[in-house]
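REQUEST FORM: STRUCTURE PREDICTION
Request ID: SP-0412
Submitted by: Lab K.M.
Chain count: 1
Length (residues): 154
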Amino acid sequence: MKSTVLIAGIAAGFTLLAFDASAAGRGGPQQMPDFATLDVDQSGSLSLEEIQDAGAVRFAAMDTDGNGSISAAEMVAAQQGRMAERAEKMIAHLDENDDGELQADEMKHRGGDRAERMFERVDADENGEISAEEFEAAAEKRGGRGGKGHRGRG
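STATUS: Completed
RESULT:
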């Protein structure tokens, strides 16, 4: 029984991710609702019905005026709320001096040597510089000029 509920939860999660991505007009995944949001009856556990109703719960949360539809303004407000949460988490994670803000030197440490690794992958002729051709080849390899998530938008 528990494995059935777990599988249903995972399937519902993917459904929600697809719904959020298509509703936002993007192909990338969105943040999953937290446990408390899904646990509508506040029982401390998720029933199959709660998992199945997760999309309706998410829709109702976005429908702030309760008219049964989501306007562009409501969709934007929902996205801004999620963006604010992500920004707060990012600052909490990277803010080395605990001033509640990120300085440029705190951001440098974020990727470690990611920029160097990326540079080495793109610099095909290993001459220490990236030519326009190498840049375009790397962009094409990633699926277009915008890279991941922007295929074909050029």
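NOTES: The mean pLDDT is 76.
Reviewed by: T.R.
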